[in-house]
Amino acid sequence: MRLCAWYLYGEKHRGYALNPVANFHLQNGSVMWRINWMGDTSPRGLAAACGMMVNYRYFLEDTASNSAAYLGTKQIKASEQVLSLVSQFQQNSKL
């Protein structure tokens, strides 16, 4: 879960999220909301993402400002759950 959070939140290509699905949702103003353990237990979900699934939440009143922040300053809006997992990864990582 921590590694997944780091991959989605911290791994970048030219400053933007490396994962193309994350990049799509963030460009459109979403918040990286929740990482679900075993959220996709289909054969494809297990092979591609170890069964993890991510929820992106759109707060309509914030989508324009979230999108502008991401596109302008490359700032990712994320929930406390995601930020906590990222922080735990950073504290325990040897990277």
From TrEMBL:
- GO CC annotations, alphabetized: mitochondrial matrix; peroxisomal matrix
The record's section on InterPro entries has:
Malonyl_CoA_deC (IPR038917), Malonyl_CoA_deC_C (IPR007956), Malonyl_CoA_deC_C_sf (IPR042303)
- From which organism does this entry originate? Colius striatus (Speckled mousebird)
Q: List residues of the Malonyl-CoA decarboxylase C-terminal domain.
A: 1-58
- The source's superkingdom equals Eukaryota
What is the protein name for this chain? Malonyl-CoA decarboxylase C-terminal domain-containing protein
| GO biological process, alphabetically ordered | acetyl-CoA biosynthetic process; fatty acid biosynthetic process; malonyl-CoA catabolic process
**GO MF annotation list:** malonyl-CoA decarboxylase activity
